[in-house]
Design goal:
Blueprint: E1 4-5, H1 10-19, E2 49-55, E3 59-66, E4 72-84, E5 95-100, E6 111-113, E7 118-125, E8 139-140, E9 144-152, E10 155-163
Parallel strand pairs: 7-8
Antiparallel strand pairs: 1-10, 2-3, 3-7, 4-5, 4-6, 4-9, 9-10
Length: about 160
C-alpha cells in the first residue's frame, strides 16, 4: 500500500471547498501562514497557472503549469507545506509549517514561466527523519493532512494532500 493518499474528498469537493472560502479540500492559507480570501484550488485556472499533484511511494510532486497566453512570474522558492496539527475531532484545522524553501532563497529567484511550461516541487516522506518542523527542506516526517501553498503573481495556489503510515 502506498504511504501517500490524497484526501479522499479532494476530487469530489474541490470546487465546493473553494467556494466556501477554505474548507479542508481547499485550505485558505498563504505561504506566509496567513488566511487568504481567494485561494486557487487544484486544477483551477487563475492568474495563468494551474496546480496539479502526483505521487508515488515516497514522493509528492506538485506541478504548476502556465495555462495562459503570456508569461507568469513564479518564484520557485515562495512555497510552504503546512500540516494540520489540530486534535482529532477539532472543528477547524490548525496549520503549522512542516517544510518550506531553503533558507536565504525566498524572493530571490523569480522567473518568467512561459505558456505551457511547468515548475515542479518534490516533497519526500521519511518517517526516520528528525523533526522536520524546524527544517527548511522538503522532507516530511509524520503522517497527517497537509497543504502545499505557493505564492505566484499576486495569488495563492494551494494543493491539499495526506500522508498515511
Amino acid at each position: 500500500m502506498s504511504r501517500f493518499a490524497l484526501v479522499a474528498v479532494a476530487c469530489l469537493v474541490v470546487l465546493a471547498g473553494c467556494l466556501s472560502g477554505g474548507a479542508p479540500a481547499c485550505p485558505a492559507i498563504g505561504p506566509d501562514g496567513e488566511r487568504v480570501d481567494d485561494p486557487v484550488c487544484p486544477d483551477e485556472r487563475a492568474g495563468g497557472l494551474s496546480l496539479s499533484l502526483e505521487r508515488d511511494a515516497e514522493t509528492v510532486r506538485v506541478t504548476a503549469t502556465n495555462v495562459g497566453d503570456g508569461t507568469v512570474p513564479v518564484n520557485p522558492d515562495q512555497w510552504v507545506v503546512f500540516r494540520n496539527a489540530a486534535e482529532g475531532g477539532a472543528d477547524a484545522p490548525e496549520w503549522e509549517t512542516a517544510a518550506n524553501a531553503p533558507a536565504g532563497t525566498h524572493n530571490l529567484t523569480v522567473r518568467e514561466l512561459p505558456p505551457d511550461e511547468t515548475e515542479t516541487w518534490e516533497i519526500r516522506y521519511d518517517p526516520t527523519a528528525s523533526d522536520a518542523s524546524d527544517r527548511r527542506d522538503a522532507v516530511l516526517d509524520r503522517p497527517g493532512e497537509y497543504v502545499f501553498s505557493l505564492g505566484a503573481d499576486g495569488r495563492t495556489y494551494v494543493v491539499p494532500f495526506s500522508i498515511e503510515e
